[in-house]
Amino acid sequence: MNAEAPQARTHTTVSDVMYPLGEVVTAAPEDPVLDLLPRLEESSMHRALVLDHGRLVGILAVADITRALAWPTPAAHPRHDGPRRHRPAA
Q1: What does DSSP assign to residue 64?
Q2: N or C: which end of the chain has fewer CB within 10 A?
Q3: 6-63 tens-digit pLDDT
Q4: Which of these, 80, 41, 42, lies nearest to 62 by C-alpha position?
């Protein structure tokens, strides 16, 4: 957004700055993290949308993976509260 003149920013829409879906890395919840890492590293976003049968269930960044792999076991991670499950929308 810095490349635009300040007065033009008020007219900037989401579609003007978003990544097209075809350029976004996607993964399924059951995909191995080590298979996803090379695709994330090649992406300028360094993030992936996590889709379960076409439904968005999460967003994963390289930093999330790095942080999770730094702990010896998932149970040792201070934020671990068991497997994360998405909840259907009400």
Answers
A1: H
A2: C
A3: 667 788 899 988 888 888 999 999 999 999 999 999 988 889 999 999 999 999 999 8
A4: 41
Q: Which 3 state secondary structure label does DSSP give 51?
A: strand
Contacts of 78 (CB under 8 A, 6+ apart): none
Instruction: Identify the helix (H) or strand (E) that includes residue 59.
Output: strand 55-61
List the structure tokens of 58: 């999460």
Which residue is listed with tokens 């300040």? 6
Tell me the C-alpha distance between 73 and 51, whole Å. Answer: 25
The token duo for 35 is 């298979």
CA–CA gap between residue 44 and residue 1 (Å, rounded): 16
